[in-house]
């Protein structure tokens, strides 16, 4: 009887854990702050290195729902819709196709060359990758890339 009771408790705990597993779409939700632009042809020790201060970042993206986002590119405010496709789970997160649908600029402040580059990159990104607490990172990172060699790295705020 004790064995059956123990088995039942373990089985229910397993089912509860299975139900709380998050989907890639839900993993993406929340605010991410810009950590830098990197080049895939180079090797890096870390993307979000020790000393990175999220509050100092002037670029951010906030995935509000599984299809809507808002963001800040310095003083420029943006919002839009997105679609994930071809989602593949990895050992430490997931990768997926990313389609930015109708990114809308909400204001027209002065825009620096760096602002323009990040804004254009957000518009043209076609791939997203999330690495959750990888060995070389202290927290989750989001990588947005396109067919170009450069990619944007964001850290979860």
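^ structure tokens above, recovered residues below v
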């Amino acid at each position: 009887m004790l064995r059956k009771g123990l088995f039942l408790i373990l089985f229910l705990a397993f089912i509860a854990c299975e139900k709380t597993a998050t989907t890639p779409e839900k993993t993406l939700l929340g605010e991410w702050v810009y950590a830098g632009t990197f080049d895939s042809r180079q090797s890096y020790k870390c993307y979000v290195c020790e000393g990175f201060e999220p509050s100092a970042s002037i670029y951010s993206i906030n995935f509000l729902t599984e299809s809507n986002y808002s963001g800040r590119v310095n003083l420029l405010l943006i919002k839009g819709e997105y679609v994930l496709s071809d989602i593949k789970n990895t050992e430490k997160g997931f990768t997926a196709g990313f389609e930015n649908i109708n990114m809308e600029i909400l204001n027209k402040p002065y825009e620096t060359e760096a602002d323009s580059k990040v804004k254009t990159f957000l518009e043209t990104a076609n791939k997203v990758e999330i690495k959750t607490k990888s060995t070389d990172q202290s927290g989750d990172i989001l990588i947005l890339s396109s067919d170009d060699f450069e990619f944007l790295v964001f850290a979860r705020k």
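The helical segments are 2-20, 24-28, 113-124.
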